[in-house]
Amino acid sequence: MKYVRSSSKKYLPSKEAKRISLAPEDIYKKAEKSKIKFWANLAREGISWIKPFTKDYEQTSEKFSWFKDGKLNLCYNALDRNLDTPKNPAIIFIPENVKEKKQTLSYLQLYESVNEAAFLLRKKGIKKGDVVSIYMPPMIEALIFMLACARIGAIHSVVFSAFSAEALRTRIKDGKAKILISCNYYFRKGEKIFLTKKIKKACRKIKIKKIIIDRKKTGKIFVKKNTPIIPPEPMNAEDTAFILYTSGTTGKPKGVMHAIGGYAVQAYWSGKYIFNLKRNETMWCTADIGWITGHTYACYAPLLNKATTVLFEGMPTHPTPDRFLKIIKENKINVFYTAPTALRMFAMQDNFTSKYALKSLKILGTVGEPIDKETWNWLFKKIGKGRCPIIDTYWQTETGSAVIDALPGHGPFIPSYAGKPFPGIDYSIINKKGKKAKSKEEGLLVQIPPFSPSLIRGVWNNPQRYKKYFIKGKYDSGDNAFYDNEGNFRILGRSDDIIKVAGHRMSTAEIEDAITSLPEVIEAAIVGKSDKIKGMIVAAFVKTKKPITEKKIIERVIKKIGPLSKPSEIYFVKDLPKTRSGKIMRRILKGLLEGEEIKNLSTLLNPESVEKIKVLIKKELPKKK
Ligand code: WT7
Q: DSSP H helical segments within 161-244, as ranges?
């Protein structure tokens, strides 16, 4: 056993676990001396620079930069410099259909494919700084094109493939994308999911070039030889690596911008120190490439570290619930990184874990939402068999890499706690009075300067929105949390109008806008309701002027955003509780759904609405189960 229980709550690494850990024992102490020097040293050691930087960190109010005068190329760091071991596997692609063969691409093969895709992008007129939309499931070409963009200095904007045509259209338009890369179909739960119609609809009357990959030929498209070499474009460290749209507190998604230098440095070192990534280590991050987790830990961090990344096309429970364990076993996965929702789903059906020894596993990671103690213990005992640490990684689209997490050779690993800030990064908690919280006191989680290298640099087309991330010189995460007296953080959930459903981030305003776009609807309020598997589900309170079916509401949300955001419960109400200034009190609605007692209604405009909704929920809820 490599991980030992030190008290009723905590686990600590054994000597052996400490020995194999890639993060030095004194790493926290080293980082504490000077965070800026610490990162500058890591940047020099981990990343290959075309022109070395002389400036490390600079900041004026909310604008900050890392390694500003340095030049580098992200693709060069992920591929070219790893060609000293050309046969080393870079990607293992596993189709959902068990009859289809898996495909392994070596670093050399991936390099050649990326070079060819870069050549194709150039041929299509794509230049440095242009935006390229990628609307694809996790398949080989998604990574090929991401890296091809990085090679020529184009900015990729990956859009989750289950988003609707309208959601894709909004992102293409906001990004002013010059080209769309997509595929004709893919497999999910045994079904063929077609993208062709959605692509057509999304691009109607927009001037945009397209490359549509045939799913049947995945992995075999860019195998031509003798393409001229496309040299990696020397990029400034602060140039934009990519944008990724995410939900905010308004109806409009935000294009979160990441800088090449800081992102490369933190993706590399977080991969090394959190997951012990190195040559011949195989990591399976189950997140879709459409989310930041997929960007950083299914693509950049493993490749920057010369490790092998596993891409799986579909549902890890298809065709049988133990599919994910088969994948771990057959591919000798060392690092398995997934979301608590997926784990709760696996645990619920578990009568199979005892049949798998899973000896290759070294590290288990979770991300996206808090992990409950029960699921943590199941993962530790049934999957890790007590040999692997559970690394609960807290981060966001905006932070680019994991920022709060225990390190495998350091710990402690405490169920439901994410752990300490990554070395060189400082987080704090601000209480209601605006002061630093005491231990165990709940408050707002904020990052303290110097800001972490891969933190957001801007919101695409919206500089005003970027400024809102910062309060009194600190980066506001929008999450509530507390720390224990040893400085381990426990994340409690969002402090704003964002909800996390099965680890996916959605904005209540965006779903409300979709519903109120129906002519029958006057107003809608969306809240998250606790759920045993998904952590949270979407509940909608809808005020109508004409009757409308639940089905129509659901269809509208799917059309405007996608199936992930559809409400699981809908309540038709006569009135929504509001403050005197007209703000809908979602907190009260949530309390009612959770069966809490609602106190102090004195500030409401219409306190009587609360009792009515309470009665309605009581009447309707049994029908919804
Ligand atoms: C939000 C960010 C970047 C990871 C994927 C999600 C929540 C993330 C944890 C965790 C508790 C977590 C926060 C955060 N979150 N990780 N380990 N424990 N909550 O990225 O879609 O930008 O969502 O996910 O609420 O703000 P995202």
A: 165-175, 196-202
Measured distance CA(271)–CA(335) in Å, rounded: 11
Query: Which of 44, 56, 29, 62 minimizes the C-alpha distance to 447?
Result: 62
At residue 8, does pLDDT exceed 70? Answer: no
pLDDT by residue (tens digit) across 469-519? 999 999 999 999 999 999 999 999 999 889 999 999 999 999 999 999 999
Pocket test residue of 274, 344, 394, 427 for ligand 1, highest count of atoms within 8 A of CB: 394
Kindly report whether the peptide bond that precedes residue 319 is cis, defined as omega within 30 degrees of 0.
yes
d(Cα 202, Cα 463) in Å, to the nearest integer?
Answer: 26
Nearest Cα residue to 224 out of 300, 118, 80: 118
Q: What is the average pLDDT score of the chain?
A: 95
Are the C-beta atoms of 142 and 136 separated by less than 8 Å? yes
At 535, give phi and psi (nearest 5°).
80, -50
Atom 21 in ligand 1: residue holding the nearest Cα: 505
Classify 71 in phi/psi space as left (phi over 0), alpha (psi -120 to 50) or beta: beta
Domains parsed from the chain with CATH numbers = 4-425+436-490 (3.40.50.12780), 502-624 (3.30.300.30)
| Cα 397 to ligand 1 centroid, rounded to whole Å | 8
Across the strands, what pairs with 530?
A: 536
15: pLDDT confidence band, cut at 50, 70 and 90? confident
Q: How far is the CA of 448 from the centre of ligand 1 (A)?
A: 18
